[in-house]
Amino acid sequence: MIEKSARPTGFYRLSSTPPDPAHSTRETFDSLPSTAGPWSPDAQHGGPPAALLARAVERLPASADGRIGRFTMELLGPVPVGPVAVAASIVRAGRSVQLATADLYDVARDRVAATARAWLFPRTPGPGGAPGPLPHGPADGADRPRPPAWHGGYLDAIEWRWISGGLEMPGSGVVWMRPPALVEGEPVSPVQRLLACVDSASGASAALDVRSWGFLNTELTVHVLREPVGEWVCLDAETTVGDGSVGVATSAVYDARGLVARSAQALLVVPRQAAPVSP
Predict the structure, then answer these.
(1) DSSP secondary-structure letter at 153?
(2) Domain 4-122+135-274 classified CATH 3.40.50.720?
């Protein structure tokens, strides 16, 4: 891992905004090296694109009185470490809940690389009842080096504090994570911070030797019980693999107050020599 003082200040740099926001939400970004995933310096980790898609949803006028309660991202191919564009819209308006969609474009190849759908729920008081604070925090965790077989980029941009497990330790893992800003010079929202981290559940709980096997997520679904507080997010993650090419990574996600979300990812499990950079 690199020292905190040398960590990047963001995952993306805003390069253009729509001339008429009333008719277009499309914004263009330069993807910084910090977005690169563990398999290649040219393809992004799933966390930054998920957060960027959520940002587009949260900037819709309909989100002013609502919050993301469920978020699903479909990865349609490699998201390049290069120019990308994002646009969002409401596909189902309603007085209580609304459904939003967002697309992330690979600008150089003129294709959609990822899509998301998000249900927006009203900001009203609820009964509570989710599990409370964990018996540990970031200060109780250990900073472990990333596996030599994995590329830096995203892995070096995140601050990791391991309570149990590790990126090169097969089995379940519990880790506190703190990401940099999503867009340089811009405050990051609580849900953006959450989504920048939660895609890491499959790596935090690798069920197989990362030197021999690749496990690439095709999608990410997150149910957000409430918006997290603070800069740190904790994943209590587990990966299950079958006897074929399908696996699933799940996590319970916590902040300092307690449980905030649950996630699941479908994984493509293949030998490393045959592993693509993205499904």
Answers:
(1) T
(2) no
Q: Are strands 181-183 and 10-16 parallel, antiparallel or unpaired?
A: parallel
Among the listed residues 146, 120, 135, the one whose alpha carbon sits nearest the alpha carbon of residue 39 = 146
Helix H or strand E encompassing 197: helix 190-198
For residues 183 and 29, give the distance between their C-alpha atoms in angstroms, rounded to a whole number.
9
Q: Is 110 left (phi over 0), alpha (psi -120 to 50) or beta?
A: left
Tokens of 119: 């249900």
What tens digit of pLDDT does each residue of 254-265 get? 999 999 999 999
**Rounded Cα distance, 135 and 216, in Å:** 31
**In terms of Cα–Cα distance, which of 74, 84, 77, 70 is closest to 27?**
84
pTM higher than 0.85:
yes
* Domain boundaries, given as residue ranges, for the chain: 4-122+135-274
Q: How many CB atoms lie within 10 A of CB 187?
A: 8
